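Tokens for chain A. Residues wanted.
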């Protein structure tokens, strides 16, 4: 088996696992796939991850589009747009390693604090702030889900998944446009992302049992756990290089 095939299958497995997680909890494909793809083929990151992030929400929205929190989505996009633009500048002018460490520490701290409280108040300000941080981190590193997920941790499963899905879809499209405008979106990144789509579809189809399990009152715990894991992954990835 050639090196290219092994690389593709390994990355595909990471996308499959991430799609299972996101299909059940509302986010996760970026946090699982981004570190693996970065280690295997750093030249296609973050573009390839954004292709995956723009595709995955389509399946969630087909199944649960009625759960979208439109008011919250508006506030999230209000923060996401400038955050995404700033994230593009980070890719060009600032060390993404430093940003990854900062975001990782912030998310880990927020997850730890909210684990001992009722949760982050879901207000216009907190949702806008989460959208900004998500846009900044998502565009620069490919992992932008945890800030938004922490704000929505107290919502019902369908509302979390549907709202985050539409947010991720629009956000990923913005990130792709920003990266393309800054000449940081090579054709090989788009091609690699497209090759990941079959693994993504398989992961979403396999996520049903886990989704039903989490909807039985376990969504908040899953969101906090995933946020903490993603933070640790960002810290490890950007510490170890």
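Reply:
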């Amino acid at each position: 088996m050639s090196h290219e095939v092994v690389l593709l299958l390994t990355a595909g497995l990471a996308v499959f696992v991430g799609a299972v997680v996101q299909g059940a909890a509302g986010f996760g494909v970026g946090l699982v796939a981004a570190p693996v793809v970065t280690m295997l083929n750093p030249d296609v990151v973050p573009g390839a991850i954004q292709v995956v992030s723009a595709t995955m929400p389509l399946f969630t929205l087909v199944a649960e589009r009625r759960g979208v929190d439109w008011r919250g989505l508006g506030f999230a996009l209000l923060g996401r747009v400038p955050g995404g633009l700033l994230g593009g500048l980070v890719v060009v002018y600032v060390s993404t390693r430093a940003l990854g460490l900062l975001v990782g520490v912030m998310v880990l701290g927020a997850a730890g604090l909210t684990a001992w409280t009722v949760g982050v108040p879901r207000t216009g300000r907190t949702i806008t702030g989460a959208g900004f941080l998500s846009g900044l981190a998502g565009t620069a590193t490919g992992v932008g889900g945890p800030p938004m997920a922490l704000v929505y941790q107290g919502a019902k499963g369908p509302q979390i998944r549907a709202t985050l899905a539409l947010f991720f879809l629009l956000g990923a499209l913005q990130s792709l446009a920003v990266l393309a405008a800054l000449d940081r979106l090579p054709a090989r990144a788009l091609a690699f992302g497209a090759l990941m789509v079959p693994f993504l579809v398989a992961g979403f189809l396999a996520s049903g049992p886990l989704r039903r399990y989490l909807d039985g009152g376990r969504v908040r715990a899953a969101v906090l756990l995933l946020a903490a894991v993603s933070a640790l992954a960002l810290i490890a990835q950007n510490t170890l290089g």
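The chain has eleven helices and no strands. The chain has one domain: 3-240.
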